[in-house]
Structure formats: structure tokens, C-alpha cells
Amino acid sequence: MSLVQHFNAYSAWRIELGRGLSRAREWLTESDLIDAQSDLRLQHLLERLRDDKLIIAFVAEFSRGKSELINAIFFAEYGSRILPSSAGRTTMCPTELAYDSARPAAIELLPIETRSRQSSIAEFRSFPEEWSRFALDTASAEEMAAALRRVGEHKRVTADVARELGFAIDEKGEDGIRPDAEGKVDIPCWRHALINFPHPLLEQGLVILDTPGLNAIGAEPELTLSLLPNAHAILFILAADTGVTLSDMTVWRDHVGAGRGREKGRIVVLNKIDGLWDGLRSEAEIDREIANQIETCAQTLALAPEHIYPVSAQKGLVAKINRDAGLLARSRLPQLEQALTRELLPAKQQIVGESIAAEAVEILSTVRAVLQTRLSGVVDQLEEFLELRGKNKHVIEYMMRKVKAEKDEFERGLQQYHAVRSVFSQLTNNLLAHLGMEALREEVRRTREDMRGAIFSKKLTEAMSGFFLSAKTNFEKSEQEIGEISRMMAAMYKRFAVEHGLKLDAVPAFSLLRHEKELARLEGIYQQQFKSLYSIVTREKKVLTQQFFETVTVQVRKTFQEANRDVEYWLRALMAPVETQVREVQLQLKRRLESVKRIHQATDTLDDRISELRQMQSALLAQVAELDQIEAGLTSARLNGSEGMRAAA
User: How far apart are the first and last CA of the chain?
Assistant: First the structure.
């Protein structure tokens, strides 16, 4: 099974899991078992599945065959090249291929001049008027190719203009672009490209990121900070004839390598092995030369040789188009596709499946607790009323007093509940004060002022370091508040379970560790890109400040936003089960009291009430059984898809 077929299987699994969630939501709504909060959470899960993306990034210096490799792996069934691939530089700016059905097929290009403004690519995505848009005629391969060639457009500008736009300029060409005799350099016309293309794989959520070479990566920190780290797999492409060059090594070390904390999903491709097919060497000699090059590259990159895959993207593309099985095998492209399948899809499916299923089961668990509370109430009433058969009016009066006493006792217990809710609100406010966006905005404002007022480089680095220190301190204080909230809620859960019989699971565990690690990763990149002596010396203060705020602070803000979202979901998940069951117990006690009152007023209704309760008991048991089936269906959809993917891999 090819990578394309595996991805189709993954998409089918995702759709099936979504259907299971939709069925659960519909059944809960029809059965009147869902509250607004649970319905919102299920809707959020469905949106996560629907918007789930699989991002694969292709990274290399120019002329390594990135675009041809993309064509060979994903677009061979088109019968021609989708991305332009020819000698020289064909991709001058980061290019994203994806599909959004709400927008027309087009290529959108962000002018390189937008770098002079203090806004990130992510922010510019919200302003379509800033992009140059060209329609894609998907019915014509020639028109498509012509439109997509725009990603390779470039222009000559003075070194000063290039430097103002963030490009590193070096007279020797060692640490940046070397100006020509006229003092001019070549730079891309465009800063970023978005290609909205209705290809079947893109329609199913695949996103392909094609990156330019070292100079463009270094000049666009957002690639390093956001786009590449968010990729589920990165293919780092080398040329078989050159191996690891100095610039290749810089890209690997600074932007891709496993040493940056992400070992999984990093694959090295040794492309253009067909250059060794000169007709003079035997297959054994060619294999030995490829093996030697793999060994050399592995030693240079400090990587295991089995993580390096030699291929011929060009021959693989030709073989797929012409259905030449022999040439395809010789291109070694299938081995790379199998590696991508092993590295990417099973892990992605497991993460998505487990996170979605865990939250869905948590929601169903709350519903199950409500059903069990109702069932217990019905059983208790049934036992009481069966005991009342043949009893006199005084016994019924006693029963009425007993139920009323239970109701009064529960109401008194609610005073403690409301007191805990008050403390919960106070702790929540403290938590959001540390983690909230207002505190971050104030810190961003302060850091910007400090950087603008800095005269020496030391003051610049102190201002930037202070920003991260403040962010980390806020996370640490937030963790303390989370711990206090967890302990308080655990005590309340236990007390209400013992005193009032509420069926409450353990307090949901929660930690900001994932966001703290992301903050540490961003700080590491800042240390590397912004705090180095080279950066301070070679970049003007204005450019350095601008790049810091249009890249680093944007990503930190995104981290805080995601942390806030996760905290809000956790806080709701803490209170929702208690609130739901408190309402349910109140309702059950009210119904019991009303039933005994009716029986007290008219003893002949006792048998009718017993019959009614037995029907309610049967209906509740049927609902529990249906809930079991729904939960089992979700579990089966998750596990069967994962096992099938692993078996196929």
C-alpha cells in the first residue's frame, strides 16, 4: 500500500470516527441527556476532526529536487508535474499547498515588502487585500504550471534594501548573500505563497510545505518558530553527488535536526541517485557507492544510516506516470514512502484517536453518571412504594417526612457547595490573571519600550530575556493555582460522593507542561537567532526589534492563547459533572416528595405509581445499554483504525 493509499485510509478512519461522534451527539440530544456545555465540547471535537491537518515539510538548499520529490510522492497520478521543477531555483519563498473548499482555486502571494512592517505571516493571513491573487485553471496543466512558476520569481535590489527587508548580506558570501559588482543582490519577489488546489489528498487535509534554501529560511524566522515545528514530518533533501555541503549542514543544525528536540518525523533523503546510472558501473558498484554516501552523510549529521533514504525523485515520477514497475523499484521511491507511512500516519492516528476518544468518553461518563443517578432514584422510590403497599396513612406520612428531611439535608449541603464555588471562582480569577492575555499584552508593551530605548546590545538582550522570564514566571504561578484548584475539587468530589451519593470520577488531571515546553523551545530559538553576538552586531536595532515582535512574541502569544483555551476546557470539565448531578439529585428528591404527597392524598394511586416507576426503570436501563453501544462503537472505530494502520505499515 502506497503512502497515498495509507493517507486515504487515514482520512476514511477520521470520517468514521466523526460519524460515531455525530451519532453520539444526536442520540444524547434526542434522549434529552446533553447540556449546553457537553454539546459545545462534542461540537468542538467534531470541528477538530474536520479541520485535522497532516503537515509534511520539504526542506533543503536550492537545486536538491524538493519540488520534484513532492510531485513524485503526491501528484504523479496527475500525469504531469504540478509544482515547477527545473534546473536552478524554482522555489524562492515558503510555499503551502492545501485546500479550502470555501475559497476558489488560486495562488496567493504575499509581497516581500511586507517584511518592513511589524506583522507576521500569520497576521497577514487575516487580510486578503495584502496578497496578490492569481486564479488557477485546474483543467489546464499548462495554465497551472504557468501560475505556479510565480513562486520562483525574484528581483534585483540594492544590498541596503535587502538588508532592510531582513536578508543577511555578506561581502564574502559566507554568512549571507554576496552583492555583485553593482552592490545589488537577488531576493524573492514574494514572502510567502498559499496554493489553494482541489487535489484529492489536499481535500482530505494534507498540507505540503515547500521551503526555499538557507538564505530565505534565515530571513523568515516564522518558518523556524512555527511552520517547521508544527509539521508532522520533515523531509530534509540532499543531493547524492554532493552529500552534505556546508550550507546543508547549517540548515540541518539550525532548522531541522533532531537535536532541536524532535527526533520523530525527521527523514533525510539522498536524492538524484540516477546521476550514478552512467551505464559504465555495475549495479553492485552503484549500490556500494550509494551505501558509502549514506554512511558519510550519517556520520556528518550524527544520524543512524537507516534514517537516510536514497531515491531518484525524477525517475520515480516518470515511473509512476508510465506505470513502469521496474524503474519505480530502481528509483527506491517506495522505500521512502513506506518510511513516511511508518513514521507519520500511525503516530498521528494514535494521537488524534486517543485525544478525541478520551474527551468523548469523559463526556459520556458524565451522562452515564446522570443515568445512574436517575436509576438509583427510581430504584429507591420503587423500593419505598413497594413497602408502602398495605400500609396505613401514618406510615405514608412518615415516609413523606423522611423524604422532606433528605431534601432539606441536601439543600443544607448545597450551602457548602456554593461556598466551594465561590472559592473556585476566586482561584480561577487568580489563575487567569497569571495566564490571561491582558498580562501578556502588558509584558509585550513593556518589552517593546525597553528594546526601543536600549542604546547598547546588552540592554536589548536583557529586554528580550526579561520577556521570557516573565512568561515562565506566569506559567509557574499558574501551575501552583492549578494544583490548588485540583486539591480543593478532589476534596469536594469525595465529600459529595460520601455525603450525598454523587457518582463522581476522579478530578481530571491537567498540566501546562506541553505549553511550558513550547515556551522553552521558543526561548531556545530566540537564544540561537536573536541573542547571538552575530545577530546583535549585524542587524540594526530597528530590524531586530521588529523581527522579535513579528515572530517570537506572536508565537508566545499563540502559546498563551492555546494554554488559556485548554485551561478553560479543564475548568468547565471540573464543575460540569458536579453541577449536572446536583441538579439531578435535586430533581429526583423533588419528584419523590411529590409522589409521596400524591399517594398520601389518594392511596389508590400507589399501584399506578409503582407501574410508572417500573416503566421508567426499564427505559433508563435501555438508555444505559444504548450508551454502552455508543461508547463501544467509538472505541472500536478508534482501535480498529489504529490496528489496521499499524498492520498495513
Answer: 8
C-alpha cell, 212: 526555499
How far is it, in rounded angstroms, from Cα 303 to Cα 298?
5
The residues near 46 (Cβ < 8 Å, ≥ 6 apart) are 18, 21, 22, 25
pLDDT in tens, 82-99: 777 655 455 678 889 999
The Cα–Cα gap between 335 and 2 comes to: 10
- Name which of 420, 424, 417 is nearest 586 in CA terms: 417
30 touches 39 (CB < 8 A)? no
Which of 207, 211, 212, 204 minimizes the C-alpha distance to 195? 207
Handedness of CA 24, 27, 31, 37 (dihedral sign): positive
Gyration radius of the chain's alpha carbons: 31
Cα 174 from Cα 183, distance rounded (Å): 16
CA dist., res. 113 & res. 165, Å (int): 7
Pair 332, 294: CB distance under 8 Å: no
CB of 275 closer than 8 Å to CB of 87? no
Give me the mean pLDDT over the 320-343 stretch: 90
User: What values do phi and psi take at 244, rounded to 5?
Assistant: -95, 105
- Torsion over CA: 260, 265, 271, 274 (sign): positive
Whether the Cβ atoms of residue 145 and residue 84 lie closer than 8 Å to each other: yes
Within its chain, how far is the Cα of 100 from the centroid?
18
φ and ψ of 536, to 5 deg: -65, -40
User: Which grid cell is 483?
Assistant: 494544583
How far is residue 193's CA from residue 111's CA, in Å, rounded to a whole number? 9
Which long-range contacts (C-beta less than 8 Å, at least 24 apart) are formed by 589-596? 589/403, 589/406, 589/407, 589/410, 590/407, 591/377, 591/381, 592/377, 592/380, 592/381, 592/384, 592/403, 593/400, 593/403, 593/404, 593/407, 595/381, 595/385, 596/384, 596/396, 596/399, 596/400, 596/403
Q: Please tell me the pTM assigned to this model.
A: 0.67
Print burial letters for 76-112: b (CB count within 10 Å at least 16), e (below 16): beeeebbbbbeeebbbbbbbbbbbeeeeebbbbbbeb
Give the whole-angstrom CA distance, residue 348 versus residue 13. 12
Torsion angle, alpha carbons of 201, 202, 205, 208, to 10: 110
Is a pLDDT exceeding 70 seen at residue 263? no
Q: Of the spans 13-17, 534-538, 634-638, which averages the highest pLDDT? A: 13-17
Alpha helices in 31-130 (DSSP H): 36-50, 66-74, 121-124
Phi, psi angles (nearest 5°) of residue 460: -60, -50
Instruction: Tell which residue, 577, 579, 581, 610, has the closest CA to residue 596.
Output: 610
Each residue's pLDDT tens digit, 588-647: 777 777 766 666 555 556 677 788 888 989 999 999 999 999 888 888 877 765 555 555
Q: How many CA atoms lie within 13 A of 338 on its CB side?
A: 13
- Cα separation of 417 and 411, whole Å? 10
CA within 13 Å, CB half, 604: 0
Contact 514, 562 (CB under 8 A): no
Closest CA to 205 of 308, 320, 109, 97: 97
315 HSE (CA, 13 A, CB side): 20
pLDDT for position 143: 78
Tell me how far apart the alpha carbons of residues 378 and 584 are, in angstroms, rounded to a whole number: 12
**Closest by CA position to 328, among listed 339, 337, 317, 336:** 317
DSSP helix/strand/coil, 557: helix
